[in-house]
Amino acid sequence: MIRKILAVILVLNFTACAELQQVVNQLPQSGTIGNTEIASGLRQALDLGIDKQVTKLTQTDGFFKNDLVKILLPEELAKVDKALRDIGLSNLADEGLKVLNRAAEDAVKESTPIFVDAVKSITFDDAKNILLGDNDAATQFLTSKTQEALYTKFNPVIKNSFSKVGADKIWSNLINKYNSIPFTNNVNPDLTDYVTGEALKGVFTMIAVEENDIRTKVSSRTTDLLKTVFALQD
């Protein structure tokens, strides 16, 4: 009887071990893919985000008609927009917002070379940390590597864009209309720095969208390399 019980236990243990081994065999094996492939996969994911998502922002209405990144007036000037709309000047308010977004669309066209250099700089250690990090870890890496250079590049482009499309006159008209409303405090904003910051936020928001898709949706892994590398973090 004891022999029979032992036999049953051995069979159960063998079966359990076999099932466990089957599960293990189905897991991505990090030993089968090297650091070079992991780094290449991360670079490919970022390149895809830049090509697919950032390029959208450079097109007409890339910012203005994208609710994720549309640039609105800064908080302290939100009252300007509301006041103009309240007195029937919605078209003027819309034109003011459009100018801000057009300037951002112009500036983002300058971003690609900076991103390309940053993506090339990803090391093996960077790749491991990014792969096993948060769903926006690659975007965070890119932000840390490019934000300062992008700001320096974007700011004069946005300033020039304001001048090119007559933004100075548009904003002067808008603010003067607002300042003529009784019981309001006069405002005289310099929006170049604000729009530069918002343009940067928009760029990294869209890259994060693509990164999250690749990390969470197998269907977004459109190459064999992406499928292999990101299977390691599933």
Automatic annotation (TrEMBL):
Keywords: Signal
A matching Pfam family: DUF4197
Highest taxon of the lineage: Bacteria
Signal sequence interval, chain numbering: 1-18
Key word Signal present: yes
Protein name: DUF4197 domain-containing protein
Organism: Algibacter pectinivorans
